[in-house]
From TrEMBL:
<keyword id="KW-0472">Membrane</keyword>
<dbReference type="GO" id="GO:0005886">
    <property type="term" value="C:plasma membrane"/>
</dbReference>
<dbReference type="InterPro" id="IPR005548">
    <property type="entry name" value="Cell_div_FtsQ/DivIB_C"/>
</dbReference>
<protein>
    <submittedName>
        <fullName>Cell division protein FtsQ</fullName>
    </submittedName>
</protein>
<keyword id="KW-0132">Cell division</keyword>
<keyword id="KW-0812">Transmembrane</keyword>
<dbReference type="InterPro" id="IPR013685">
    <property type="entry name" value="POTRA_FtsQ_type"/>
</dbReference>
<keyword id="KW-1133">Transmembrane helix</keyword>
<dbReference type="InterPro" id="IPR050487">
    <property type="entry name" value="FtsQ_DivIB"/>
</dbReference>
<feature type="domain" description="POTRA">
    <location>
        <begin position="62"/>
        <end position="130"/>
    </location>
</feature>
<dbReference type="InterPro" id="IPR034746">
    <property type="entry name" value="POTRA"/>
</dbReference>
<feature type="transmembrane region" description="Helical">
    <location>
        <begin position="40"/>
        <end position="58"/>
    </location>
</feature>
<dbReference type="GO" id="GO:0051301">
    <property type="term" value="P:cell division"/>
</dbReference>
<feature type="compositionally biased region" description="Basic residues">
    <location>
        <begin position="11"/>
        <end position="25"/>
    </location>
</feature>
<keyword id="KW-0131">Cell cycle</keyword>
<feature type="region of interest" description="Disordered">
    <location>
        <begin position="1"/>
        <end position="25"/>
    </location>
</feature>
<dbReference type="Pfam" id="PF08478">
    <property type="entry name" value="POTRA_1"/>
</dbReference>
């Protein structure tokens, strides 16, 4: 009897353990087109951003078309625009507003200035002019002084309602304008002239001919309150230099 061949069982060849075939990554038919679409989308976005940046920063598309000036009284808008020195068409985002404000601030009448961008093409300039508190009459005209003693304008004649100042020097002038800026409006309206020989010898001359010895620029609120009570009494000269010990003569 012939035996079964080795490796065969019941006439069938014995098979060894089956090996699992390695799985290969499956690429769908749409994978490559999707990747290409995303790549083009990124490139397109970058191109758009580049164009926008170029338009905004390097072309007059969003450039300065107008300079709007508000708050001027003695100045004219054209004087402010000339001081701003911003060329038409300059890209708005590249305008240095601080630098423009510094140039405008060189105008003597300008007290404060604010410069803002307003897209698409307007530069807004808000001006606060200096407020005069006294006038100094000189050979070349009437010089306007503000509360900081800045001589910022010259007129042919003193304006009505503004007290004239006769001072003995820069420090005396500063003291006098400090007083004029701080006294209450009801008193300020009565002052027609101020004499300040020294910083501690300030005198106010009132419209009705009475005079006030004010002293220095300290204790303005206290002196104003005391003087308000004294002016209801008879007298020609009211001394509030020492507000706790006022006198009338």
């Amino acid at each position: 009897m012939t035996g079964a061949a080795p490796g065969r069982v019941g006439g069938r060849a014995r098979r060894g353990p089956r090996r699992k075939a390695a799985r290969r990554p499956v690429r769908t038919a749409t994978a490559l087109p999707v990747l290409s679409t995303r790549r083009w989308a990124v490139l397109g976005t970058m191109a758009v951003v580049t164009v926008v940046v170029c338009l905004v920063f390097f072309t007059p598309v969003l450039g300065v078309r107008a300079i709007e000036v508000t708050g001027v009284q003695g100045l004219t808008p054209d004087e402010v625009r000339a001081a701003a020195a911003v060329e038409s068409g300059t890209p708005l985002v590249r305008v240095d507003t601080d630098e423009v404000a510094t140039r405008i601030r060189q105008l003597p009448r300008v007290g404060t200035v604010e410069v803002r961008r307003s897209f698409p093409g307007t530069l807004e300039v808000a001006i606060t002019e200096r407020t005069p508190v006294a006038v100094v009459v000189a050979h070349d005209g009437a010089h306007l002084l503000d509360a900081a003693a800045v001589d910022y304008g010259v007129l042919k004649a003193p304006p009505a309602g503004l007290p004239t100042l006769d001072s003995g020097g820069e420090q005396a002038t500063r003291g006098a304008v400090t007083v004029l800026a701080a006294i209450p409006p009801q008193l300020s309206k009565q002052v027609v002239s101020v004499t300040a020989r020294t910083p501690s010898d300030i005198r106010l001359n009132l419209a009705d001919g009475r005079a006030v010895k004010w002293g220095d620029s300290d204790n303005t609120r206290r002196k104003s309150a005391v003087l308000a009570a004294l002016l209801s009494q008879e007298g020609k000269t009211f001394d509030v230099a020492a507000p706790d010990f006022p006198t009338i003569s």
